[in-house]
Amino acid sequence: MLPFPNKMQDFINVTIKLAEGFGTTLALFFLTLVFALPLALLFAVLSRSRFKPVSLIMRAFIYIIRGTPLLLQLMIIVYLPGIVFGAPITKWTVFHGNVPLSYFCGALFAFVINYACYFAEIFRGGIENIPKGQYEACAVLGMTKSETFFRVILLQVIRNILAPMGNEIVTLVKDTALARTVAVTEMFFAASELLRVNFIIWPLFYTGVFYLLFSALVTAFFNVCEKKLGRYYK
Amino acid sequence: MALLSAKGIKKDFGDTKVLKGIDLSLDKGEVLSIIGSSGSGKTTLLRCLNFLETADEGIISINDDVIFDGSDPVFRTEKSILKGRLHFGMVFQQYNLFPQYSVKRNLTLAAELNHLRNNKNADKKKLREELDDKASSLLSRIGLADKQDNFPCELSGGQQQRVAIARALMLTPDILCFDEPTSALDPELTKEVLKVIKDLKDEDTTMIVVTHEMNFARNVSDNVIFMYNGKIEEQGSPEAIFDDPKSPVLKSFIADDK
User: What is the CATH number of domain A14-230?
Assistant: First the structure.
């Protein structure tokens, strides 16, 4: 019997298994973006607040989150409620059909907080980099504050933050692999299971192809955006 | 009756007294230059007039109609400031055009927003057409008719500054203010911007120009104010200021320039 069809079958089976895990990876990726982006805008506004206690607390929070590993934050959010308050995350389980999602939700929460802090700093930089003259030009032309922000400033902020945002979002693609440490069955978890149960190691390396392809898509998206907005600038 | 009159304008930044009581008046069609060394308060004076800064004390009126009175908080509300500002057009040293809009849109944006704010039911399409026509005719006046669809980054500094002048004129202000309009330009580009300002003078535009260009101040102004240390040290006709200065600081300022 030729070995080839079997190997081919193995490859197809592994690909399906990894693709299933990749579905969870994608869910984690997109849900993190959906929640973290608006939250980051709020964080950015709060950290620029003229009311000192608010901006100080916000900046301290951002400093702590950015100054500790995401891995540690995952552990704390998933395990600390059980250890400290006797209310393990599995107790308040959210179900999707028959699948318990408590670990996924815990991990998502950690990702959202972590990325919101990074995004917030990028937003803040983007807003603070707008020259004062742009606001003054709007003012002398009689524009109101909201007209100034939405008609003149916002697009310039978006243009300013595109490159750092692209960078950070590509990092998020790869960071999702950390979720396996708190029992989220994303792609890397699936590959580790194949090693543990079936003693095959190559699927672990094969995951790299998925990450690379997806990063390429994200990068291409940002390149298109930069090209679109770049024509206004030298 | 003076078009603009300002009395007792004072402004502090923290402990620094930047303006120590300025009086000035300006007739319709008059061109007033403000000269003086850096830190003398000339830019701050201009910014107090068009409300980019709010003066601490003093009264500003247009055609005897008070638009600012430092002793009355009513004049510090956003509404009052927005209204008062529209008497003044402003041209900045760094042009401050909106980079994401075409030259024409730079001109029409604020005009359109201002109109729609006051007339909620305006016919948008018709308004756009009117403003586009007005923008085109202003751009041909400054010799940039062929650039209306370009973006600011595609223009030279001098061209950008001319667009900024047209943008200010778009709102038909009573008084056009310039804050060192040629300081960021090389001599060749300076010439083309000064020519536009000269043409505006020939059309009886009322202007206040803060400038370092002494030749320009001498040739274009009807009156010159020399500021020193937050006060008007000397004022008069260009001939009086440049050929027959009285105050010793003005004498040395003019000597330094030569």
Answer: 1.10.3720.10
The residue type of A165 is M
What's residue A4's pLDDT? 56
Secondary element (H or E) of residue A195: helix A187-198
Under an 8 A CB cutoff, do A232 and B86 touch? no
* B197 C-beta neighbours (distance < 10 Å), count: 24
The string of pLDDT tens digits covering residues A64-94 is 999 999 999 999 988 888 787 777 777 666 6
Pairwise CB contact (< 8 Å): A152 & B151 = no
Hey, are the CB atoms on A151 and B113 less than 8 Å from each other?
A: yes
Within the 150-189 window of chain B, which residues sit less than 8 Å (CB to CB) from chain A? 151, 153, 167-168, 171
User: In chain B, whose CA is at the least distance from the CA of A133?
Assistant: B96
A228 CB neighbours in chain B (<8 A) are: none
What is the pTM for the complete model shown?
Answer: 0.82
| Residue B255, pLDDT score | 85
Whether pLDDT at B25 is above 80: yes
Distances (CA, A) of B155 to A169, A229, B41: 35, 18, 32
| Residue in B85, B92, B153 closest to A234 by CB | B153
Minimal CA separation from B52 to chain A, in Å = 7
Return all residues near A88 (Cβ < 8 A) that are at least 6 apart: A79, A81, A82
Contact call for residues B209 and B240 (beta carbons, < 8 A): no
**Pairing state between β B57-62 and B65-69:** antiparallel
Cα angle vertex B257, ends B204, B39, to 5°? 80
**Domains, chain B, ranges and CATH?**
1-87+178-258 (3.40.50.300), 92-173 (3.40.50.300)
